[in-house]
Amino acid sequence: MRIVATAATREADSAAFLVADGGKIAATITHGNQAWGAKDIALVDGQSEVVVVPDDAMTLVLFKQGKETLRLPVALTPERLHELRP
Fold first, then answer.
1. Residue 77: pLDDT band with limits 50, 70, 90
2. CA 3, 59, 4 angle in degrees (round to 5)?
3. Nearest Cα residue to 1 out of 32, 29, 33, 40
4. Are 57 and 76 in contact (CB under 8 A)?
5. What residues have CB less than 8 Å from 82, skipping those under 6 apart?
6. Whole-number Å distance between alpha carbons of 39 and 79
7. Rounded to 5 degrees, what angle do the CA atoms 86, 3, 63 make?
8. What DSSP string describes 22-51?
9. Smallest Cα–Cα separation from 62: which of 81, 77, 40, 45?
10. Which of 52-56, 59-63, 73-77 has the highest mean pLDDT?
11. 69: confidence class by pLDDT, cuts 50, 70, 90
12. What's this model's pTM, rounded to 2 decimal places?
């Protein structure tokens, strides 16, 4: 999935996904043959790179300088690339 912020949310500089109990869940980021998990996803000009998020992710949270700016429920399915546009 990938985050593509709208004009109203473009100021966000990072994002995270939460599970049902409110805890952050790690997304998998890949570059070539390297992969790693990160609970905080960098946003550049309001966009993330493509990341893999576990199926139990329930909420997308956007941050600016560490302060929460938006929460959105998410419903992810494995069959396609999701572009979330908060």
1. confident
2. 10
3. 29
4. yes
5. 1, 2, 74, 76
6. 23
7. 65
8. S-EEPEEEEETTEEEEESSEE-BTTB---E
9. 40
10. 59-63
11. very high
12. 0.88
- Give residue-wise pLDDT tens across range 15-41: 999 999 999 999 999 989 999 999 999
The DSSP output letter for 19 is -
Q: Which residue, chain included where needed, has tokens 């941050």?
A: 63
CA distances from 24 to 6, 19, 31, 41, 71 (A): 23, 6, 22, 11, 13
